[in-house]
Amino acid sequence: MKDHSIDYELIVTIVNKGHSEKVVEASKKAGAEGGTIIFGRGTGIHEKSQLFNFVIEPEKEIILTLIDQKKTDQVLEAITIDAELNKPGRGIAFVLEVERTVGINHILNQMINDRLDQEE
Asked: Could you tell me the pTM of the whole model?
């Protein structure tokens, strides 16, 4: 049986290559611990262009930000503003609920320290 519940959400942000640092910095300023950057390429109907009859598919960067649910709105807002996601062609972001997590030791350490502070 669980003693307590820690609720997380995953902010997935997809931007053009070279713009992931804006997302990571914005999320850190808003309270996130960091993020994971994955490289990919777009496949949408507007993603392809041609150069000398060769199809060029723009490279993308996908930033995964696992965040305490209480901080999701402020982090998503910071990403939207700093990465200019409200402008066409800049990228997208969406949020997924996370059912379980393992290996988040810095959160556990903070909880232990907070409990010890309360006991003193």
From this structure: 0.75
Q: Return d(Cα 75, Cα 10) in angstroms, integer.
A: 11
Which among 59, 68, 58, 89 is positioned nearest to 11, based on CA atoms?
68
Q: Which CATH architecture has domain 8-119?
A: 2-Layer Sandwich (3.30)
Domain ranges of the chain: 8-119
Cα–Cα distance measured from residue 70 to residue 30, given in angstroms and rounded to the nearest whole number:
12
Rounded to 10°, the helix 20-29/72-82 angle is: 140
pLDDT reading at 41 higher than 70: yes
Mean pLDDT of 36-63: 74
| CB neighbour burial string for 33-66, b if at least 16 within 10 angstroms, e if fewer | eebeeeeeeeeeeeeeeeeeeeeeeeebbbbebb
Distance CA 68, CA 79 (A): 16
